């Protein structure tokens, strides 16, 4: 969860009023914020630099191609970024949505040991059987 110091810096540096916590995960925390009267957005604070950069690059790529949904799942639009504080500000979207791209890799395959890949592929075969994406 976000620390009180980061929470204070986030609000002070970006002139945002944190309305409520929307959730947290392995890479960071997401908050509903108000940046002007009745203008509500969300901010995601990323705890580590690498997932932050992957997430930021994914949102930039989505923006480049004007992607607003993926297979019926809504994608927030990136509104602002604070690279020093590792904060992304984005639109709020209705369910169903896709908004966690901290584990996404663009243009390069992540480097994992072969046994990690084998385990992951076996797990996915077990979960999804012989079905392939789009089938």
Polypeptide structure, described:
The protein has 135 residues and is α+β, with helices and mostly antiparallel strands. The chain is 31% helix and 28% strand. The protein has a single domain (4-102), classed as Phosphorylase Kinase, domain 1 (2-Layer Sandwich). The chain is globular and about 50 Å long. The model is unreliable at 1-5 (pLDDT under 50).
What's this, in brief?
With about 140 residues, the protein is an alpha+beta fold. It has three helices and seven strands, in the order αβββαββββα. Strands 1-2-3-7-6 form a five-stranded antiparallel beta sheet, with helices on both faces.
Distance between the termini: 38 Å
**Series of H and E elements:** HEEEHEEEEH
Radius of gyration: 17 Å
The averaged pLDDT comes out at: 80
Query: How many domain units?
Result: 1
The third-level CATH topology is Phosphorylase Kinase, domain 1
CATH homologous superfamily grouping: Phosphorylase Kinase, domain 1
The level of helicity is: 25-40%
The appropriate CATH architecture is 2-Layer Sandwich
Number of strands: 7
CATH class, please?
Alpha Beta
**Count of runs of 4 or more consecutive helical residues:** 3
Q: How would you describe the shape?
A: globular
Taken as a percent bin, the fraction of beta residues is 25-35%
Largest sheet: 5 strands, antiparallel
Strand order of the largest sheet: 1-2-3-7-6
Low-confidence stretches: 1-5
